[in-house]
Fold this sequence. Notes:
Layout lengths: L1 E15 L3 E8 L3 E7 L17 E9 L6 E11 L6 H17 L7 H16 L5 H15 L21 E3 L4 E3 L1 H5 L5 E2 L2 H11 L14 H15 L7 H8 L10
Parallel strand pairs: 3-5
Antiparallel strand pairs: 1-2, 1-4, 2-3, 4-5, 6-7, 6-8
Helix pairs in contact: 1-2, 1-3, 1-7, 2-3, 3-6
Amino acid sequence: MAIERLEAVVLKLHALGDTSRIAVLYTRERGIVRAVAKGARQPKSKFAGALAPLHRVSAHLYFKEGRDLQLLSGLDLLESYAKAEDFERLAHAQAAVELVDRLVWGEEEHAALYELLTAALARLTRAPSDELAALSVALQVQAAGLLGYRPVLSECAGCGRDATQARQFAAVRGGILCDRCAAGEGGGLRLSAEGVADLRRLAALDWSSPASARSARAGELLKVMEVYLQTHFQRFSGFRSLELLRAFDVPGKEPVR
């Protein structure tokens, strides 16, 4: 058994016994790691203030290969992405960790996906509220791409022909279909021209750029990506945090989520 220090985002926590917790961590070095934090539920725990969902941490673990649960011995808080005072912002940040929790299997290093997650979470904490939904779309389409399921958006996913003007999205076929292929395909989603253009733009979003990510069609695109992820990732069944956000929509406000 060796002591390792891993940078991680805390995805979620589970109670264990009367005093402890199981922490689900997404680490830069080892992918998803599950670890026991003994005594974490006690008032004076050494993990207090650091071990919480949406925290980026430096985790100290007693690590043993092949063991399902590692032992968390210490934790240093590096950054918090949890903005509890802003319900909408918190919901989109929670959707980001839900995405990784459902799309990633076990201990498999994927530094690019870790960097994408932390970049997205950092931007979600500071972006204007009218950009939040579009940023969620960008994270979802880019994460799918890193895991080998990038939607086909420039050419037809059916025949490979140019689909610049196409507006039919078929999740089962993997992306946009030209009019000819769409005519024989049932169950597709018809997008607005602006929606298609914005989906292509968000698929290439530079997270370090100060340019606005806002999309007036973000609500439309979130629904498209949810169907796409459900189609291609067995463990993904939808975003509970975004469903809750939709339930609290203010009447008369444009539903950008």
